[in-house]
Protein backbone atom coordinates (compact mmCIF):
# COMPACT_ATOMS: atom_id res chain seq x y z
CA UNK A 1 0.00 0.00 0.00
CA UNK A 2 1.35 3.42 -0.97
CA UNK A 3 2.46 5.65 1.90
CA UNK A 4 0.83 9.02 1.11
CA UNK A 5 2.95 10.92 3.67
CA UNK A 6 6.36 9.56 2.69
CA UNK A 7 8.60 12.25 1.13
CA UNK A 8 10.46 11.44 -2.08
CA UNK A 9 13.91 12.84 -2.87
CA UNK A 10 13.83 14.99 -6.04
CA UNK A 11 16.59 16.82 -7.88
CA UNK A 12 16.43 20.58 -8.34
CA UNK A 13 16.73 21.27 -12.07
CA UNK A 14 16.80 25.07 -12.05
CA UNK A 15 16.45 28.07 -9.74
CA UNK A 16 15.09 31.38 -11.06
CA UNK A 17 14.82 34.64 -9.19
CA UNK A 18 11.36 36.12 -9.73
CA UNK A 19 11.46 39.21 -7.50
CA UNK A 20 13.17 40.68 -4.47
CA UNK A 21 11.81 37.94 -2.19
CA UNK A 22 10.56 35.12 -4.47
CA UNK A 23 12.36 32.38 -6.33
CA UNK A 24 11.01 29.60 -8.56
CA UNK A 25 12.48 26.12 -8.09
CA UNK A 26 12.06 23.66 -10.95
CA UNK A 27 12.12 20.12 -9.52
CA UNK A 28 12.45 16.82 -11.36
CA UNK A 29 9.47 14.62 -10.50
CA UNK A 30 6.87 12.36 -12.09
CA UNK A 31 4.10 13.60 -9.76
CA UNK A 32 1.08 14.80 -11.75
CA UNK A 33 -0.81 17.46 -9.78
CA UNK A 34 -4.08 19.14 -10.56
CA UNK A 35 -4.15 22.89 -11.13
CA UNK A 36 -4.33 24.53 -7.70
CA UNK A 37 -3.05 21.62 -5.59
CA UNK A 38 -0.11 21.88 -3.19
CA UNK A 39 2.77 19.69 -2.06
CA UNK A 40 4.77 19.48 1.13
CA UNK A 41 8.41 20.42 0.52
CA UNK A 42 10.88 19.32 3.16
CA UNK A 43 14.52 19.28 4.20
CA UNK A 44 15.61 16.59 6.68
CA UNK A 45 16.28 17.90 10.21
CA UNK A 46 14.86 21.33 9.23
CA UNK A 47 11.16 20.82 8.55
CA UNK A 48 8.59 21.05 5.79
CA UNK A 49 6.28 23.64 4.28
CA UNK A 50 3.17 23.51 2.06
CA UNK A 51 3.83 25.13 -1.32
CA UNK A 52 1.43 25.54 -4.25
CA UNK A 53 2.42 24.24 -7.67
CA UNK A 54 2.96 27.22 -9.98
CA UNK A 55 3.60 25.18 -13.13
CA UNK A 56 4.18 21.59 -14.21
CA UNK A 57 4.85 19.35 -17.17
CA UNK A 58 6.19 15.93 -18.07
CA UNK A 59 8.88 15.11 -15.51
CA UNK A 60 9.00 18.47 -13.73
CA UNK A 61 7.18 20.83 -11.41
CA UNK A 62 7.70 24.49 -10.46
CA UNK A 63 7.32 25.95 -6.98
CA UNK A 64 7.41 29.72 -6.57
CA UNK A 65 8.50 30.35 -3.01
CA UNK A 66 8.69 33.42 -0.78
CA UNK A 67 11.18 33.28 2.05
CA UNK A 68 9.06 33.57 5.19
CA UNK A 69 10.55 31.13 7.71
CA UNK A 70 13.08 28.48 8.66
CA UNK A 71 12.19 25.96 5.96
CA UNK A 72 11.89 28.40 3.07
CA UNK A 73 15.10 30.16 4.15
CA UNK A 74 16.89 26.81 3.95
CA UNK A 75 15.34 26.01 0.57
CA UNK A 76 16.70 29.33 -0.71
CA UNK A 77 20.21 27.99 -0.04
CA UNK A 78 19.65 25.16 -2.51
CA UNK A 79 21.21 25.14 -5.98
CA UNK A 80 20.55 23.17 -9.19
CA UNK A 81 21.63 19.59 -8.61
CA UNK A 82 20.72 19.67 -4.92
CA UNK A 83 17.88 17.61 -3.46
CA UNK A 84 14.45 18.60 -2.16
CA UNK A 85 12.01 16.17 -0.60
CA UNK A 86 8.42 16.23 -1.86
CA UNK A 87 5.18 14.56 -0.83
CA UNK A 88 1.77 15.02 -2.39
CA UNK A 89 0.01 16.33 -4.36
CA UNK A 90 -2.69 17.22 -1.85
CA UNK A 91 -6.01 18.99 -1.62
CA UNK A 92 -8.70 20.00 -4.07
CA UNK A 93 -7.60 22.12 -7.01
CA UNK A 94 -9.48 24.50 -9.28
CA UNK A 95 -12.66 23.04 -10.82
CA UNK A 96 -11.18 23.52 -14.30
CA UNK A 97 -13.79 21.38 -16.05
CA UNK A 98 -16.52 23.62 -14.65
CA UNK A 99 -14.80 26.61 -16.27
CA UNK A 100 -14.95 25.06 -19.76
CA UNK A 101 -16.90 27.24 -22.20
CA UNK A 102 -17.19 30.11 -19.73
CA UNK A 103 -15.76 33.59 -19.40
CA UNK A 104 -13.18 33.34 -16.61
CA UNK A 105 -12.16 36.29 -14.44
CA UNK A 106 -8.99 35.88 -12.37
CA UNK A 107 -8.00 38.42 -9.72
CA UNK A 108 -4.69 37.93 -7.90
CA UNK A 109 -2.64 39.74 -5.30
CA UNK A 110 1.13 39.29 -5.00
CA UNK A 111 2.24 35.66 -4.91
CA UNK A 112 -1.43 34.71 -5.23
CA UNK A 113 -0.61 34.61 -8.93
CA UNK A 114 1.42 31.41 -8.40
CA UNK A 115 -1.49 29.01 -7.64
CA UNK A 116 -3.28 30.05 -10.86
CA UNK A 117 -0.26 30.26 -13.19
CA UNK A 118 -0.52 26.70 -14.49
CA UNK A 119 -4.23 27.18 -15.18
CA UNK A 120 -3.57 30.47 -16.97
CA UNK A 121 -0.98 28.75 -19.14
CA UNK A 122 -3.51 26.05 -19.96
CA UNK A 123 -6.02 28.71 -21.07
CA UNK A 124 -3.26 30.36 -23.12
CA UNK A 125 -2.27 27.11 -24.83
CA UNK A 126 -5.89 26.01 -25.35
CA UNK A 127 -7.68 29.25 -26.31
CA UNK A 128 -10.91 27.44 -27.20
CA UNK A 129 -11.26 25.92 -23.73
CA UNK A 130 -12.85 29.10 -22.29
CA UNK A 131 -14.71 31.95 -23.99
CA UNK A 132 -12.45 34.67 -22.61
CA UNK A 133 -10.01 35.42 -19.80
CA UNK A 134 -10.01 38.67 -17.84
CA UNK A 135 -6.95 38.94 -15.59
CA UNK A 136 -6.38 41.51 -12.84
CA UNK A 137 -2.97 41.20 -11.15
CA UNK A 138 -1.91 43.44 -8.29
CA UNK A 139 1.46 43.79 -6.59
CA UNK A 140 2.61 45.91 -3.67
CA UNK A 141 5.43 47.54 -5.67
CA UNK A 142 7.62 46.97 -8.71
CA UNK A 143 10.14 44.92 -6.70
CA UNK A 144 7.40 42.42 -5.91
CA UNK A 145 6.36 41.63 -9.50
CA UNK A 146 6.70 37.94 -10.36
CA UNK A 147 6.44 36.07 -13.67
CA UNK A 148 7.34 39.18 -15.69
CA UNK A 149 7.71 37.36 -19.02
CA UNK A 150 4.43 35.51 -18.48
CA UNK A 151 2.61 38.75 -17.68
CA UNK A 152 3.77 40.16 -21.02
CA UNK A 153 2.87 36.97 -22.88
CA UNK A 154 -0.62 36.76 -21.36
CA UNK A 155 -1.41 40.23 -22.75
CA UNK A 156 -1.46 38.66 -26.21
CA UNK A 157 -4.60 36.61 -25.57
CA UNK A 158 -6.12 37.82 -22.28
CA UNK A 159 -7.82 41.04 -21.22
CA UNK A 160 -5.37 42.27 -18.59
CA UNK A 161 -5.14 44.92 -15.90
CA UNK A 162 -1.82 45.02 -14.05
CA UNK A 163 -1.57 47.29 -11.02
CA UNK A 164 0.80 48.41 -8.28
CA UNK A 165 -0.73 49.40 -4.95
CA UNK A 166 0.79 52.89 -4.84
CA UNK A 167 3.79 53.03 -7.17
CA UNK A 168 3.82 54.34 -10.74
CA UNK A 169 4.99 52.16 -13.65
CA UNK A 170 4.60 52.74 -17.35
CA UNK A 171 1.81 50.63 -18.78
CA UNK A 172 0.53 49.73 -15.31
CA UNK A 173 -2.35 51.08 -13.25
CA UNK A 174 -2.02 52.35 -9.70
CA UNK A 175 -4.37 51.14 -6.98
CA UNK A 176 -5.60 48.04 -5.17
CA UNK A 177 -7.19 45.26 -7.22
CA UNK A 178 -10.57 46.00 -5.65
CA UNK A 179 -10.59 49.30 -7.54
CA UNK A 180 -10.62 47.50 -10.90
CA UNK A 181 -13.28 44.83 -10.33
CA UNK A 182 -15.98 47.08 -11.76
CA UNK A 183 -13.95 47.32 -15.00
CA UNK A 184 -14.92 43.72 -15.79
CA UNK A 185 -17.95 43.58 -18.16
CA UNK A 186 -19.90 41.04 -16.12
CA UNK A 187 -23.20 42.07 -17.73
CA UNK A 188 -21.92 41.02 -21.16
CA UNK A 189 -21.21 37.44 -20.03
CA UNK A 190 -24.91 36.40 -19.95
CA UNK A 191 -24.32 34.71 -16.61
CA UNK A 192 -21.87 32.26 -18.18
CA UNK A 193 -18.75 33.04 -16.15
CA UNK A 194 -16.64 32.19 -13.12
CA UNK A 195 -14.47 34.36 -10.88
CA UNK A 196 -11.22 33.19 -9.26
CA UNK A 197 -9.65 35.23 -6.44
CA UNK A 198 -6.26 34.44 -4.86
CA UNK A 199 -4.08 36.48 -2.54
CA UNK A 200 -3.62 37.42 1.11
CA UNK A 201 -6.78 36.82 3.21
CA UNK A 202 -7.73 40.53 3.50
CA UNK A 203 -7.35 40.94 -0.27
CA UNK A 204 -9.59 37.93 -0.95
CA UNK A 205 -12.16 39.12 1.56
CA UNK A 206 -12.56 42.62 0.15
CA UNK A 207 -12.23 41.55 -3.49
CA UNK A 208 -14.96 38.96 -2.93
CA UNK A 209 -17.18 41.59 -1.34
CA UNK A 210 -16.51 43.96 -4.25
CA UNK A 211 -17.38 41.25 -6.78
CA UNK A 212 -20.68 40.56 -4.99
CA UNK A 213 -21.32 44.30 -4.93
CA UNK A 214 -20.84 44.28 -8.72
CA UNK A 215 -23.60 41.70 -9.00
CA UNK A 216 -21.56 38.50 -9.09
CA UNK A 217 -23.46 35.62 -7.46
CA UNK A 218 -21.46 34.08 -4.61
CA UNK A 219 -21.61 30.60 -6.14
CA UNK A 220 -19.66 31.87 -9.18
CA UNK A 221 -16.65 32.89 -7.04
CA UNK A 222 -13.73 30.59 -6.12
CA UNK A 223 -10.80 31.25 -3.78
CA UNK A 224 -7.71 29.43 -2.59
CA UNK A 225 -7.69 29.42 1.19
CA UNK A 226 -4.26 28.15 2.28
CA UNK A 227 -3.95 28.03 6.03
CA UNK A 228 -1.67 26.20 8.49
CA UNK A 229 -1.55 23.02 6.42
CA UNK A 230 0.89 20.78 8.29
CA UNK A 231 0.16 17.08 7.81
CA UNK A 232 -1.83 17.66 4.58
CA UNK A 233 -3.93 14.54 5.21
CA UNK A 234 -6.44 15.75 7.80
CA UNK A 235 -4.83 14.17 10.87
CA UNK A 236 -3.02 16.92 12.78
CA UNK A 237 -5.92 19.40 12.94
CA UNK A 238 -3.80 22.53 12.56
CA UNK A 239 -5.75 23.74 9.52
CA UNK A 240 -9.16 22.83 10.92
CA UNK A 241 -11.83 25.54 11.09
CA UNK A 242 -14.98 24.19 12.78
CA UNK A 243 -15.62 20.98 10.79
CA UNK A 244 -13.56 21.97 7.74
CA UNK A 245 -10.05 20.66 7.10
CA UNK A 246 -8.44 23.11 4.69
CA UNK A 247 -5.86 20.56 3.51
CA UNK A 248 -8.58 18.05 2.55
CA UNK A 249 -11.63 20.15 1.70
CA UNK A 250 -9.51 22.89 0.07
CA UNK A 251 -7.34 24.76 -0.48
CA UNK A 252 -9.78 25.72 -3.26
CA UNK A 253 -13.22 26.64 -1.95
CA UNK A 254 -16.35 28.10 -3.40
CA UNK A 255 -17.04 31.52 -1.92
CA UNK A 256 -20.35 30.33 -0.46
CA UNK A 257 -18.27 28.23 1.95
CA UNK A 258 -15.07 30.26 2.10
CA UNK A 259 -16.80 33.36 3.48
CA UNK A 260 -17.42 31.46 6.73
CA UNK A 261 -13.82 30.23 7.09
CA UNK A 262 -12.63 32.67 9.71
CA UNK A 263 -10.78 32.03 12.95
From TrEMBL:
Q: What is its EC number?
A: 1.8.-.-
Spell out the molecular function terms from Gene Ontology: 2 iron, 2 sulfur cluster binding; flavin adenine dinucleotide binding; metal ion binding; oxidoreductase activity
Q: Which InterPro entries match?
A: Cyt_c3_hydrogenase_gsu (IPR012165), Dihydroorotate_DH_Fe-S-bd (IPR019480), FAD-bd_FR_type (IPR017927), FNR_nucleotide-bd (IPR039261), OxRdtase_FAD/NAD-bd (IPR001433), PyrK_electron_transfer (IPR050353), Riboflavin_synthase-like_b-brl (IPR017938), Sulphite_reductase_B (IPR014260)
The segment(s) forming the FAD-binding FR-type domain are 5-96
Keywords, in A-Z order: 2Fe-2S, Iron, Iron-sulfur, Metal-binding, Oxidoreductase
Q: Report which superkingdom the organism of origin falls in.
A: Bacteria
Cofactors per UniProt? [2Fe-2S] cluster
Enzyme class comes to oxidoreductase
Put simply, this protein is called: Sulfite reductase, subunit B
Question: From what organism does this protein derive?
Answer: [Clostridium] asparagiforme DSM 15981
Which lineage ranks, top first, belong to the organism behind this chain?
Bacteria, Bacillati, Bacillota, Clostridia, Lachnospirales
Q: What gene does the UniProt entry assign to this protein? A: asrB
Amino acid sequence: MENIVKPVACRIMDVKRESLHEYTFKVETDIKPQHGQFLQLSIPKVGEAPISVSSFGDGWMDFTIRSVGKVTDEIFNKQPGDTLFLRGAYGKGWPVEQFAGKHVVLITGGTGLAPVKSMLNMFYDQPDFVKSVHLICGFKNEEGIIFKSDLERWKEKFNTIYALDRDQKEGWSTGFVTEFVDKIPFDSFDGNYAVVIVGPPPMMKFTGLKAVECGVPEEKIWVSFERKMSCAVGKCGHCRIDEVYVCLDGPVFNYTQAKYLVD
